[in-house]
Amino acid sequence: MKTLRVGLGERSYDIVCERGILSRVGEVVAPLGRAGRKAFVLTDSNVAPLWLGKAVASLKAAGLDVSSGALPAGEPTKRFDSLMTVYSMFAQSGLTRSDVVITLGGGVIGDLGGFAAATYLRGLDFVQVPTTLLAQVDSAVGGKVAVDLPWGKNLAGAFWQPKAVVVDPEVLDTLSDEYFSDGMAEVIKYGCIRDKGLFERLDEAGSREKLRAHIDDVVMRCCDIKRVVVERDERDTGERMLLNFGHTYGHALEKFYDYKKISHGAAVAVGMRTICEIAERKGLTAAGCAEKITSLCNKFGLSCKDDAPYREVIGAIKGDKKNLNGALNVVLLHDIGDGYIYPTDGGFWL
Ligand SMILES: NC(=O)c1ccc[n+]([C@@H]2O[C@H](COP(=O)([O-])OP(=O)(O)OC[C@H]3O[C@@H](n4cnc5c(N)ncnc54)[C@H](O)[C@@H]3O)[C@@H](O)[C@H]2O)c1
Ligand SMILES: [Zn+2]
């Protein structure tokens, strides 16, 4: 079993990773609280038939008093309205302050369940059991939890660190190629900003099938990169912005299509390529980075291309919530593996 300790003082926690660990998740969760406490497993309608049984059996075997609930799969479930359903599930199973919530699913379940855990009874323990690649390398680590409001994504949220993150690479076997590619955009992002060796390993593997044998190492390497950044900037006021490489243009593109036509990963892939092309022209990024990123993304089903009219898309950048006080920081690469934050005015994109 591989373990990483996220060091955040009294909010520190372990990320543990092992193939098949879902069948032993109870052994990780039980020691975190009093014997026999209640555990509520929140999941979605796709994950429930695939993986919920294993998780529940293991939690019961470890002596926890388990109940569970599944919500419809998909981003619309992350709406504020769903919170009422989750709170009512918590209430019906009689959760108290000393009990624990377990989020078994992708980023939607992790973000929503984490926010419900952060707010129900003024805060319950929660354990993330991420089941998508994106959730394993990104959303389950770092303590950002949120729901979507009618005015935008993630508008109501909190920083609420999990008590543990349990990563089972085996659950990725049932993930569709489409969602695997989505997560790969974030994996490639980590290589770009912090780890040239990772970038090269991905390039060498060159396909989902070949990567399968190394996926544990790859996922944990990404978690470790996020760990370091989060430890230095838990509340996202500075360095954590590095994780946003490719995301400024990516978010604008998602928004341009009203979050319908393009997936997050596909948009981030276009964003990584776009910002490198601009920065290469300005001499701020080594020549050839955009091309290397595009070639790697292509191997994992991400085209890095989109036909949206550029000027209209950059119009949406103004509305990005990370665009504070009119000043816009962007994340650039000196070269592959070496990201940096570059302060600009709005003119950067023109
Ligand atoms: N908190 C953060 O720091 C953070 C970071 C990045 C993204 N996010 C959020 O994450 C969300 C996206 O997460 P996501 O891409 O995981 O989406 P998701 O949770 O909707 O999962 C994607 C799809 O995969 C299915 N699925 C999940 N695990 C599966 C498995 N093992 N086998 C088969 N199917 C499976 C789900 O049912 C769903 O249909 C967004 O709401 C985004 O805002 C949060
Ligand atoms: Zn992202």
What does this structure look like?
The structure is a single chain. The protein has helices at about 25-30, 45-60, 80-90, 105-120, 135-140, 175-195, 195-205, 210, 215-230, 245-255, 265-280, 290-300, 310-315; strands at about 1-5, 15, 40-45, 65-70, 100-105, 125-130, 145-150, 150-160, 165, 330-335, 340-345. The chain has two domains: about 1-175, Rossmann fold (3-Layer(aba) Sandwich), CATH 3.40.50.1970; about 180-350, Dehydroquinate synthase-like, alpha domain (Up-down Bundle). Helices cover about 40% and strands about 20% of the residues. A seven-stranded mixed beta sheet has the order 1-2-9-6-5-3-4, with helices on both faces. It has about 350 residues and is α/β, with parallel strands linked by helices. The radius of gyration is 20 Å and the shape is globular. It has 13 helices and eleven strands. A hairpin with a 2-residue loop joins strand 10 (about 330-335) and strand 11. Bound molecules: nicotinamide-adenine-dinucleotide (NAD) and zinc ion (ZN). Nicotinamide-adenine-dinucleotide binds near residues 44, 46, 47, 138 and 154.
